[in-house]
Amino acid sequence: MAGSESAGNFRSSYYDKAGIRNVNETKALDQALSRNPVDIGKLCCLLQRITVPASHRERLWKLVLGITPADSRIAKSIEEDRRGQFEMLKSTLEVMRLIDAKSSPVETVTLMILLERGELQMNHKSQLDSAIVRDLQQVFGVMCHVASKLQDAYWLARNFHNHMVELRFDTNDLISQTRSLLEKDDPTLLECLVRGSQDGTISIQHWFNLYFASVLPESALLKVWDKILGGCVGKLGCKHLTTTAKIILIQLRPAIVEAKSNEQITQILHQPLPEELATPLLNTLKGAN
């Protein structure tokens, strides 16, 4: 059995180094995208299982988030409707003098989403400075980097936000589930994390509020979001959120174990993950899913 497992690991490593795995994964993805209508359930499975090429990411996310219809025969009319709604919201904000040509894409997208949801306040500058909206802007900023056009950034950010709101994730529950994973996989690390904590919780609420935006380097974040989007839209709920949190904590283990105080641990958990830990994290995450 050990020999078989070793041989399997060798083949897996060889395929990755030779690029064979990526070629096969891209072929499977292209085949799924060539169907009409596209099987969204299959795309969700692929998002969780493969390394998504950067060239495919925007199209995939638009499909799984319902921006681009699965049936290409109605894509043109849907696109026209979406363009009209985008232009109406943007024009309204311009008339209200809340945005202009100098406004950043992130601020524009954020104000458009707040306006559409009926959540835009009179003092919009104060609202943009609030902790909740600052977190949203971190998330929406990622969509602005992924999308090739502002209109697509708006729809990606809007549908992602609306979908996550509908799922009603409770950050306290997510932290509790992460703790349960650590109890099983690394109880010593868990003991270090909760030592000195009055309520025994782990100080990672901001990770879940941000879906790891500004926590992970963007190159790693996008690959994590591939899995989160595939899992959440594919009805796997919070599995990838808690698994990712656990793996990040394990990657930070040396620094956490050496910390002299709870304040030092909190500081470690509020810093971006070092770039050199991103690749090991992704390799572990791929094996975990």
TrEMBL record:
**Keywords, in A-Z order:** Cytoplasm, Cytoplasmic vesicle, GTPase activation, Lysosome, Membrane
Primary residence: cytoplasm
Q: Does the keyword Cytoplasm apply?
A: yes
GO MF terms, alphabetically ordered = GTPase activator activity
Q: Where in the cell is it found?
A: Cytoplasm, Cytosol; Cytoplasmic vesicle; Lysosome membrane
Query: Does the record bear Transport in its keywords?
Result: no
Q: What is this protein called?
A: TBC1 domain family member 7
Q: Which organism is it from?
A: Galendromus occidentalis (western predatory mite)
Q: Which gene encodes it?
A: LOC100901495
